[in-house]
Design brief:
Layout: E1 2-6, H1 10-22, E2 26-30, H2 33-42, E3 47-51, H3 59-68, E4 76-81, H4 86-95, E5 99-102, H5 107-132, H6 142-159, E6 162-170, H7 173-180, H8 182-199, E7 205-210, E8 213-219, H9 223-238, E9 253-261, H10 268-284, E10 290-291
Parallel strand pairs: 1-2, 1-3, 3-4, 4-5, 9-10
Antiparallel strand pairs: 6-8, 6-9, 7-8
The structure holds 3'-deoxy-guanosine-5'-triphosphate and magnesium ion (4 copies).
Modified residues (4-aspartylphosphate): 51
Enzyme class: transferase
Domain Response regulatory: 2-118
């Protein structure tokens, strides 16, 4: 666990740094709020231990700045205070702090508070994973891939690049379930994801959009690129049957693709609708094919 310490008092800063390192943590210790903010923006810290009173940006202000960032990671914040004013605890909590340690600190108390921090952070991580990933296939879930699409559409518009959107739907998947059973169907879904990921480029992202339907976002893609990528996915999926206890299960996929961003325009909803329409055409035209 990486800890950021912000403390303007040199003795206290050194003492915190040394104690935390002795306890096995990786520590960055800085002497004011501004430096803490810069460090927090640059690196991933799970925990911030910040003094309350510091020149320029003080502890509560730093808390507010961090909480105002739409970040997926949670930074657990402990404020250090020499104050004993009861009102200030509430002010610190309202600013976004999770806990307090009074100075001079007691080591056992620090260890106890770190245990709580680790417990909360582990819980947050678990919930974050559950809320972001599809449990069966391990790729992003629908909400996560849709968030990503919105971001990428915005980015493509700003940077004048185009973005490929692909909807891949396994063909006659219901028949696979009916013929081989639901568990075998699950295995086919996992294998389909594995095969799709083999051909994706480093910045392409995939999410499970529905039962046997996947959404792929391919940044910086021309019309030509997105069709080539879709054909690679189609080939990768159908190359050979999926191994199962009941023998090989043949699998094919249909893809509807479109591009957005630069010159083309369109928001996330419009792009999905266009890719969906293309997918429908691919199904009508006989499946195991790509339509733009
Ligand atoms: P089409 O080629 O038109 O797409 O036909 P299809 O059979 O693939 O499409 P349909 O929408 O009729 O059926 C999809 C099936 O996918 C129905 C559903 O039971 C199955 N399914 C959805 N989620 C899961 C899952 O997590 N595991 C398994 N095994 N099956 C699933
Ligand atoms: Mg101070
Ligand atoms: Mg299907
Ligand atoms: Mg269907
Ligand atoms: Mg479907």
């Amino acid at each position: 666990m990486k800890i950021l310490v912000a403390e303007d008092d040199t003795t206290s800063r050194l003492l915190f740094g040394a104690t935390l390192r002795k306890l096995g943590y990786t520590v960055t210790a800085v002497e004011n709020g501004q430096k803490a903010w810069e460090a927090w923006e640059q690196d991933e810290y799970s925990l911030l231990i910040s003094d309350w009173m510091m020149p320029d940006i003080d502890g509560p202000q730093l808390c507010k700045m961090i909480r105002a960032e739409p970040s997926l990671r949670y930074t657990y914040i402990i404020l250090l205070t020499a104050l004993d004013g009861k009102g200030s605890y509430l002010e610190g909590m309202d600013a976004g702090a999770d806990d307090f340690i009074t100075k001079p600190f007691d080591e056992e108390q620090l260890v106890a508070r770190l245990r709580v921090a680790e417990r909360i952070l582990a819980l947050h991580k678990k919930l974050h994973i559950q809320a972001t990933y599809d449990r069966l296939t391990g790729v992003w879930n629908r909400a996560a891939i849709m968030d990503h699409l919105e971001k990428e559409v915005g980015r493509a518009a700003c940077q004048s690049t185009s973005i490929g959107v692909l909807v891949a739907d396994l063909d006659h998947f219901k028949r696979i379930n009916d013929a081989y059973g639901h568990p075998a169907g699950d295995t086919v879904l996992q294998e389909a994801v594995r095969r799709m990921c083999l051909v994706l480029r480093p910045h392409d992202r995939i999410g499970r959009y529905g039962g046997e339907e996947f959404l792929i976002i391919a940044p910086e893609c021309t019309e030509n690129d997105v069709v080539i990528l879709a054909e690679q996915i189609r080939n990768s999926i159908s190359r050979e049957p999926v191994d199962s206890q009941s023998g090989g299960i043949p699998m094919t996929v249909s893809l509807g693709v479109t591009i957005g961003g630069n010159q083309v325009g369109g928001d996330a909803g419009t792009l999905i609708a266009a890719a969906d329409k293309a997918l429908y055409r691919a199904k009508i035209a006989g499946r195991n094919r790509v339509e733009f």
